[in-house]
Amino acid sequence: MYYTQLRAFHAVAKAGGFSSGAQSLGLTQPAVSDQVRKLEDAFGVVLFNRGKRKISITATGAHLLNITNRLFQVESEAVSYLAEAEALQSGALKIMTDSAFHVTQILRRFRDTYPGITLSIGIGNSEKVAARLLSYEADIGVFADTLDDPRFLAIKLGTDRLVAFVESGHRLAKQTTITLAELAGETLVLRERGSVTRRLIEQAFADSTLVPVRPIEVEGREAAREVVAAGIGVGIVSKPEFGYDGRLHLIEISDSDQAMDETIVCLAARSEQRLIRAFLDCAQTEISQQNT
Asked: Is residue 196 within 8 Å of 260, Cβ to Cβ?
């Protein structure tokens, strides 16, 4: 409410005169004098002793100057911060993914390009990723699903087949392939509902009219991996997500073509925000290089 008047006072106090203060603001001297007078009248104070040739600041004015110094210093810091953010030298980007594996190279490229940006990465299944995006708790999402939703902008990372895996000492560890019928007779370690991996393998069983006999539900990919590593059952992941773990053995599923589409997504309405667009551009560049 008093910003214009405080700015006029500050300029005059710093410059030591109404004319020079007005010049620093690019205004006329009468306009600046009027703003200072209005501030004095509004609060019944005198901020400057006005002489015929020069002015001097009053004790009240000197105290106010200490305050306006802080006020306009904060304003300067805010403008500098925004300028840096515009140049992508600072800021924070929140990423929610079903598996960090799928975006490690993109994250590396983004980090190398914009080292001043703070990255935070959360893990959750596809339903949680979409929910975080819609609630503005995440800027970028990565999950194994194909979206047909106009609220989202999606970039496809790739398509990966599902594979089974067991503990290296498991009796199935001697096999390189396994059928759905064989899997259905094993103790399956399945992700929580909302997981695309679980949905796809259950669809594969349904298409083959098979019903798994002993499934175990585990929340989270890492938890599922640890349960399988303990020798309790057979896990299901996309092939790239298996990675390397000396405790585990990968087995191809010979009679299923179920595959996962890994996708980077953001809210379409936010896709042109500078940080989000910068990440999407890094993703596009990385994907293009991997496909060449």
From this structure: yes
Q: SS3 letters for 106-143?
A: HHHHHHHHCCCCEEEEEECCHHHHHHHHHCCCCCEEEE
The pLDDT assigned to 236 comes to 93
**DSSP track, 43-69:** HT---EEE-SS-EEE-HHHHHHHHHHH
CA-based nearest residue to 229, from 216, 248, 255, 215 = 248
Q: pLDDT value at position 257?
A: 84
CA distance 130 to 125: 9
Domain map (residue ranges) of the chain:
3-86, 91-292
| Residue 93 C-alpha from the chain's centroid | 4
Q: Please state the φ and ψ torsions of residue 167, each to the nearest 5 degrees.
A: -65, 145
Helix (H/G/I), strand (E/B), else coil: 217: strand
Instruction: Please check whether the two domains, 3-86 and 91-292, share a CATH topology.
Output: no
CATH of region 91-292: 3.40.190.290
Alpha helix segments (H runs only) across the chain: 3-15, 18-25, 29-43, 59-86, 104-113, 126-134, 180-184, 196-207, 221-229, 239-242, 274-290
Write down how long the chain is.
292
Q: What's the rounded Cα separation, in Å, for the pair 180 and 21?
A: 82
Structure tokens at 19: 């004319």
Q: What is the pLDDT of residues 45-83, one digit of tens each?
A: 999 999 888 899 999 999 999 999 999 888 888 887 777
CATH 1.25.10.10 fits 3-86, yes or no: no
| CA–CA distance, 157 with 291 (Å, rounded to integer) | 10
Measured over the CA atoms of residue 239, residue 232, residue 167 and residue 178, the dihedral's sign is negative
Q: What is the pLDDT of residues 184-206, one digit of tens each?
A: 999 999 988 878 888 889 999 99
pTM, two decimal places = 0.59
